[in-house]
């Protein structure tokens, strides 16, 4: 088999080394394409060079095909173009002779042992995901606590003596320093770890093989990077990356080996196929959702189902739910030990919204139209957020594609975020009394009177998770309308600018924080319409606004509804949250796609949606497929097969076996074969 990997010619075809296939074109044009491989005259093998891209809306002419051979170095961005670096997962088992012989050798007991192994692996996935979530939570709490205490002491010191500019420089320096390291490891070590990773995992569950998305190196960079990003004060959250982290853990544990470490533990070898691997990755993603939000039901079944996994197996569904429960319990147990309350399982997830059980939090029937209107507002704001982020990402693809520039941009955003927060706190006159039972973690007095604190600092001078809880549960009068309005406006644009940087970060918590701010503002404005009864509790409307904003950005409905219900611990809010999310999705889809779908398009990933486009009924296969196609005849020379497999320009996993119809150019596609299967057959022949 060593001969197969060499670039030699075994067949009677002429030497085509000078016409190597086209390399994968990148949107930033960092690699230059090479000409398409031409078809040899009289050859029985149809060669595809590498189809550069496919545009479904324009007819490809001969002149366009000729111009594609001399492709320019800079490729203009076009979301209708599909990248060549993606392949599909071999999800269906190749039922050839070798596979059937292997299955026949297994006894009933062996199959039962395999089923037990699947349960053990899912339990291990949940346990490790919970440990990773616990590590992230503790690290962020400790490092952020040190940073905010240092800055607070500095601000208190220079408030009366003057020189608050030193405090500003200290804040900017600490934020930029943390974000710099978080961006360096992403930009220079593992770029696939940037962002939340949810679009990539969504593509993987859809059946697309995304390069390096489930590597151990990706996991390490993702975990360390998200800690630096959150501690660095960016408008990000640590919950989204947990989904990617759980998926990477699942892929590594289920395969019993590590590609990054080049270590094979010789276990779970039966599961080293894409069929099993994708099922375990579904369990890992679900465990990540469960650890992030303390929502095993939404994580165990609904999230993975909504994001692309197909649960045709009831036992698979139970295993995924089992992994989610283990993940939640593991995180809960170790956090209880960390808080010196062993056995008190009151921290089910990284984000805890608190309980909405007071009488003021109850809603009435006449408030349902108000909730639906807030859903429409959230859908519109979400569409505007996605629109801005879409064009920002295109700008980054074209002009900020070098790693050094990506690090500089991340540091710039960190510095601007700290500066804007400081200015907003400095000029804020919203002072609130600091009672003995206050819940503010780092209250800043600044220019307020003794016994008071700056309300704007509660929103900015804190981790995003604590800011969300304060907007949900702080009593009425904690924030005034001007504070909430200014915070919503500034944080909206900061979060939009931040998502897409070369850092590991999620968009869940920033979306919740933006929505909670303008939702609480709506509650205050509604309560001001009457002076008799406080029927519009600000915390209740903050919850509805948070759901509307998050739904308007990510466009998830079923799983997000259950996540919000499980995170709040109040099932009575199921109906209004569902109506709000449905309204936000309908309104948002009218203007713009969801954020994850837009980033999938920007990555030129061949994502297959659940339903075909409405205008695709008239399309034929030849209009969307690459041409010419690398095909093999039913009876083929060994040398021809070796050349096809060893061709580095053709890295596809499947090749159609065709039958030529005499006297006609039509080709009948008989069956598709797998590259690995051909290698096994050739090994036995050679």
TrEMBL record:
Predominant localisation class: membrane
GO CC aspect terms: lysosomal membrane
Entry membrane topology: Multi-pass membrane protein
GO MF entry, a single one: chloride:proton antiporter activity
CDD domains: ClC_6_like
Keywords: CBS domain, Membrane, Repeat, Transmembrane, Transmembrane helix
Keyword Transmembrane helix attached: yes
Subcellular location: Membrane
Transmembrane spans: 119-140, 168-189, 219-237, 280-304, 316-338, 368-392, 404-427, 482-502, 508-529, 571-591
InterPro entries (alphabetical): CIC-7, Cl-channel/antiporter, Cl-channel_core, ClC
Polar residues biased stretches: 1-12, 27-43
Chain spans, region Disordered: 1-43
Keyword Transmembrane helix: yes
Origin: domain of life: Eukaryota
PANTHER family xref list: CHLORIDE CHANNEL PROTEIN CLC FAMILY MEMBER (PTHR11689), H(+)_CL(-) EXCHANGE TRANSPORTER 7 (PTHR11689:SF136)
UniProt name for this protein: Chloride channel 7
Protein source organism: Poecilia formosa
């Amino acid at each position: 088999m060593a001969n197969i990997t060499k670039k030699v010619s075994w067949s009677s075809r002429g030497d085509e080394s000078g016409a190597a296939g086209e390399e994968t074109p990148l949107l930033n044009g960092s690699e230059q394409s090479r000409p398409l491989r031409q078809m040899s005259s009289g050859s029985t093998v149809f060669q595809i060079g590498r189809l550069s891209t496919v545009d479904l809306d324009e007819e490809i002419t001969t002149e366009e095909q000729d111009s594609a051979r001399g492709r320019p170095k800079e490729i203009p961005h076009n979301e209708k173009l599909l990248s060549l670096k993606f392949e599909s997962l071999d999800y269906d088992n190749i039922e050839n002779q070798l596979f059937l012989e292997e299955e026949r050798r297994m006894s009933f007991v062996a199959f039962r042992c395999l089923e037990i192994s699947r349960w053990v692996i899912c339990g291990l996935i949940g346990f490790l995901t919970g440990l990773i979530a616990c590590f992230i939570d503790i690290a962020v709490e400790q490092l952020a606590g040190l940073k905010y205490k240092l800055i607070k002491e500095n601000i208190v010191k220079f408030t009366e003596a003057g020189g608050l500019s030193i405090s500003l420089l200290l804040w900017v320096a600490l934020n930029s320093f943390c974000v710099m390291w978080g961006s360096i490891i992403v930009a220079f070590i593992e770029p696939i770890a940037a962002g939340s990773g949810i679009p990539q995992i969504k593509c993987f569950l859809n059946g697309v093989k995304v390069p390096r998305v489930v590597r151990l190196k990706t996991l390490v960079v993702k975990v360390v990077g998200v800690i630096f990003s959150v501690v660095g004060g960016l408008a990000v959250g640590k919950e989204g990356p947990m989904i990617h982290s759980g998926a990477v853990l699942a892929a590594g544990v289920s395969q019993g080996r590590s590609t990054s470490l080049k270590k094979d533990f010789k276990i779970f070898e039966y599961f080293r196929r894409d069929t099993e691997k994708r099922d375990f990755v579904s369990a890992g993603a679900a465990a990540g959702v469960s650890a992030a939000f303390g929502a095993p039901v939404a994580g165990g079944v609904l999230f993975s189902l909504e994001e692309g996994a197909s649960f045709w197996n009831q036992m698979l569904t139970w295993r995924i739910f089992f992994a989610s429960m283990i993940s939640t319990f593991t995180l809960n147990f170790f956090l209880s030990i960390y808080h010196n309350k062993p056995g008190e399982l009151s921290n089910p997830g990284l984000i805890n919204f608190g309980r909405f059980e007071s009488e003021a939090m109850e809603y009435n029937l006449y408030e349902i139209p108000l909730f639906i209107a807030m859903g429409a507002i959230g859908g519109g704001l979400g569409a505007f957020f996605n629109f801005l982020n879409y064009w920002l990402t295109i700008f980054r693809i074209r002009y900020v594609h070098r790693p050094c520039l990506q690090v500089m941009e991340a540091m710039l955003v960190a510095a601007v975020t700290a500066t804007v927060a400081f200015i907003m706190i400095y000029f804020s006159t919203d002072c609130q009394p600091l009672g003995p039972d206050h819940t503010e973690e780092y209250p800043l007095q600044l220019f307020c009177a003794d016994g008071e604190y700056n309300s704007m600092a509660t929103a900015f001078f804190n981790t995003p998770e604590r800011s969300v809880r304060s907007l949900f549960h702080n009593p009425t009068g904690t924030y005034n309308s001007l504070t909430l309005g200014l915070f919503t406006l500034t944080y909206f644009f900061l979060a939009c600018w931040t998502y897409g940087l070369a850092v590991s970060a999620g968009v869940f918590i920033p979306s919740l924080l933006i929505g909670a701010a303008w939702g609480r503002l709506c509650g205050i404005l509604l309560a001001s319409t009457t002076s008799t009864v406080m029927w519009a509790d600000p915390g209740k409307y903050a919850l509805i606004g948070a759901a509307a904003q998050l739904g308007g950005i990510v466009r998830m409905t079923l799983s997000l509804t259950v996540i919000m219900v499980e995170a709040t611990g109040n099932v009575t809010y199921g109906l209004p949250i569902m109506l709000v999310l449905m309204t936000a999705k309908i309104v948002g889809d009218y203007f713009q796609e969801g954020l994850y779908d837009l980033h999938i398009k920007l990555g030129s990933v061949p994502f297959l949606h659940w339903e075909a486009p409405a205008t695709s009924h008239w399309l034929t296969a030849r209009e969307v497929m690459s041409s010419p196609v690398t095909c093999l005849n039913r009876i083929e020379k060994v040398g021809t097969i070796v050349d096809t497999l060893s061709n580095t320009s053709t890295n596809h996993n499947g090749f159609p076996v065709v039958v030529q119809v005499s006297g006609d150019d039509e080709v009948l596609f008989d069956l598709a074969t797998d590259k690995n299967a051909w290698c096994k057959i050739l090994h036995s022949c050679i």
